[in-house]
Amino acid sequence: MEDRKSNLLYDLAGVFLPRRCAGCDQALMRYERSICSDCVDDLPRLRSHDDPDNKVEQVFRGRLRLHAASAFLQFTKDGMVQHMLHRLKYRGDPAVGLELGRRMAEEVMHSTRFADVDVLLAVPLHRRKEKQRGYNQAQVLVDGMREAWPLRAVDTGLLRVVHTSTQTKRGRLARWGNVKAAFQLADPDALKDAHVLLVDDVVTTGATLESCALALANVPGIRISVLTCACA
Ligand SMILES: [Zn+2]
């Protein structure tokens, strides 16, 4: 029910926003969802989900024990992917996130290393940021993924951002993503023996994903994988 309600909100947002492609800004055809057919054909797909030496694997090598790590698209400055993620994060357009999530899942669910994922878990956003934006972009990607790949849903509050005193001291300028171990798992039993896929919009240094994975690492029998929409 909760899922249906949030999807309805995304749909409503789509009604009031101009129907323009999130990649190239051309007008969309009625049947196109957020991204025009030309841009869908031109998506810079990395297609390296089954490569244990892909770019995202290299980001985490020696830092974390992951089952698998991968990204859907190549991020380039001023490129199509940056435009799409900008629209998702800063222009209040979650519909493009749903569409990217769906396409990302359609690809990843057929790859060998990710095929047995049990649970999709969005990297949480600081509560203040989520309130400002109205949604967590990583959760929107997960919601889109689940349209194509109906995996077990977990409570979005399962993984929480911990508000530490050092963070408060750093004040508004704090880049909370830099704070180590800033996440806490509310119910370890919910992920026991599961293959959990941590999902985020983009991976750069990997610090945020690393903190999340550390918060999950002690769950008995867990396997942790990482997937981002884009990789810089
Ligand atoms: Zn386009």
Explain what you see:
The protein has a four-stranded parallel sheet, with helices on both faces. It has 232 residues and is an alpha/beta fold. It has helices at 2-16, 37-42, 55-60, 80-90, 94-108, 127-133, 137-148, 165-170, 207-216; strands at residues 68-74, 119-122, 159-161, 183-185, 195-203, 223-231. It is built from nine helices and six strands. It is 38% helix and 15% strand. It has one domain (2-231): Rossmann fold, CATH 3.40.50. 37% of the residues are buried. α4 (80-90) packs across α5 and α5 (94-108) crosses α7. The protein is globular. The chain binds zinc ion. Zinc ion (ZN) is lined by residues 21, 23-24, 26, 36, 38-39.
Structural class: alpha/beta
Percent of residues in helical segments? 25-40%
Total of domains: 1
Work out the radius of gyration. Answer: 17 Å
Low-confidence runs of at least 5 consecutive residues: 165-169, 171-179
The CATH class label is: Alpha Beta
Second-tier CATH architecture:
3-Layer(aba) Sandwich
Strand order of the largest sheet: 1-6-5-2
| Ligands present | zinc ion
- What's the SSE pattern? HHHEHHEHHEHEEHE
Annotated CATH topology? Rossmann fold
DSSP summary, beta strand count: 6
Report the biggest beta sheet as strand number plus sense, adding barrel if it closes: 4 strands, parallel
Strand content: 15-25%
Tell me, what's the shape? globular
Mean pLDDT level:
88
Our measurement of the CA-to-CA distance between the termini, rounded to an integer number of angstroms, reads 36 Å
SS summary, helix count: 9
